[in-house]
Amino acid sequence: MIITPEKLKKWLDNDKNFTLLDTRPKDQIKQSPIKELKCIIGNPNSIDQIKGDKVLVCQFGIVTEGMILENELQNSFSLLGGVQAWNEFIKDKNDLSRWSRQTILREIGIDGQKKIMKARVAIVGMGGLGCPAATSLVAAGVGTLNIIDGDTVDLSNLHRQHLYQPVDIGRDKVNVAKRSLENISSQTKIIAFDNFLNQSNAKSCFENIDIIIDATDNIVSRQIIDKVSKDENIPMVYGSIYRFEGQVGVFNTNNKIGYSELFPDSISGGKTCEEAGAVGMLPSIIGNMQALEAIKLIVNLEPNLIGKLLIYDSLQHKTEVIEL
Amino acid sequence: MIKIRLKCFSQVKYALGTNEIIFELEDETFTDDLEKLVRKKAEGKLDNVTLSTAVNKKYISKNIELVDGDEVAFIPPVQGG
Known about the structure:
- The complex is a heterodimer.
- Chain A has helices spanning 5-13, 26-31, 62-70, 82-92, 100-103, 109-118, 130-140, 173-184, 202-205, 219-232, 259-262, 273-276, 281-299, and strands spanning 2-3, 19-22, 40-41, 54-57, 76-79, 120-124, 144-148, 189-193, 211-214, 236-242, 245-251, 308-313, 318-323.
- By secondary structure, chain A is α/β, with parallel strands linked by helices.
- Chain A is elongated.
């Protein structure tokens, strides 16, 4: 079982009777002391001899979760996110333990998580790419998400667009997606734009946005995104699929080229998913790659796909990266 | 003569029916020459498709001369989402 820092604080405030055990090695306790919490330095081997409820603490909440499972400890709770999440909660009254599995990563950490929670991302197209990208970004804790699409849910969407259910057929995609995404996390502010992107509404869709995710299914929209991305200096995270193949890249960032330079005279981009077909897993993979690149941009993580085009062949599971 | 490896993606792959082709070409062959050859081999299936060129995994915006051992890709824009 786990307990969040917020819940633990309530237990403390309500004078609940339980034992707090710091299971970390002594040098780690010295290096990273736990704030405003008096713990017994616990011997992991004798924990099951302590009666009543126990809260076990380690640095990130991973060791104690394993300890409870492996030893089948009863009435024992692992502090989610460990000392890292608790100390942050004490400092800012902000419980980040939900994201403890990504704040453990030193490339993200608490500072990276705070950047993610302030980030404002727009997704154009709430179809095969947009649904997984939005789901992952909301789950990651992105602060604001603008979702832009004028389409309605169709039965043929459901095998790859998992924010929608049969009951949603005929309803506006963005409104259904907003409700589904809010069920994943209320942390993210979702702003729904129930219209297709065009030259006249593009600026309002991207106002105060840090990153644009191109999850559209047509070249004209991609060209509009590219122009705003260049004009407003907003990175464009491009994604697209064709049958069993997908493309991902980050354009107009660090003086690297954009979509219109890569494909200057895009007469035809091949068939759409409706015409060419699409296996449901591929847009989920590519949409998640786009979300990952957005997170890398937010936390300034390298290597990334800035100035690169990644081509993924899902039949052979091969990737090719072209320097742009 | 020079040997060039063509890597095929998206519509090019489907038009030519393969992932890769080795071409033996005359010296002083340029990227535009190879593109014409590929389009001809595709028998009209790439007529309306814009192709971007990469040589040795690097995007090339100009028509350049190919050298023995080069790896070339003609990348079409794809629009599914």
